[in-house]
Amino acid sequence: MLKTDHVKSTLAQVVADRKQELSPGRMFVEACVRDGLDAAVEYDVTITDSLTSSRRKPRNPARNMLRAVDLSRDPREFYWHESAPAPGDAPIAGAEVRREMASRFHKSPIPELLTTTAWVQVPPDLWKDPETFETFINYRLIVRLCTAENVTIISGEGGLLNIPGIERMTSPGPYASAILRACNEIEQMGGTADGMIINPSDYYLAMGNGRLMEDLEQNGVFIVRTRLVDPGQAIVGDFGHGAQLFDAGRSVIRFAEPPAGTFSEPGLALCAEIYERVVVNLPTNFFVVSV
Predict the structure, then answer these.
(1) How many other CB atoms are found less than 10 A from the CB of residue 132?
(2) Measured distance CA(202)–CA(128) in Å, rounded
(3) How far is CA 90 from CA 86, 103, 167, in A?
């Protein structure tokens, strides 16, 4: 009984401690009180991973599909990856069934991390109400940063849509058959199709026309809905074993002058930045599907 009481007490203390932790927005508000428009806060975490959504219906960001490596706490110089066999490679015994046996192995340096940036324009005098200003930072600036992070991971210069070695799979048939064909190809490579990134219009159209989305999710496929892939397109892959997100483990929020064209009128602006880059260890276990 004493042991049970001790566990309950410990858990209660953990919950209480977490409630006392300052949110990114609260930390910046306190910096503003101290430093005014010179306020700038450097965080020792990636702030897109620091807030829990209060939505009743989950909307998963691309970050949640990937195994994140915090380079500030787990420094590395290299990562491993594979590639499909080159034309003319000698036949490999057993590769007719276990295709991955013919893949080539590589070691590469950790690529330069990319800067992901988001901007918001602060309404006049909003900072005079600390609670409102805190929620504006947490649920507007950081949410904008989450959207920008999706660009970095999916469609930006180093995003999944632009990584060499990921095969394109085009099908003249139904969308569902193309998705399932990609899932099968990944398993034929020895992997598991555990994630998919699709346009919301395809997600809801598939829901309305059948059980595809329900069947995939019940089969353990983690689905991210985003505008960053075109309608009729999807990224299907073995995200659990086949990709990583290298992350600097730091962020910054500050007042700054935005680039021209960021807003329609002049005004006080806040900038948030994180630093990260996705790499694909097993490009043969990913497909960009289109119909």
Answers:
(1) 14
(2) 43
(3) 9, 12, 22
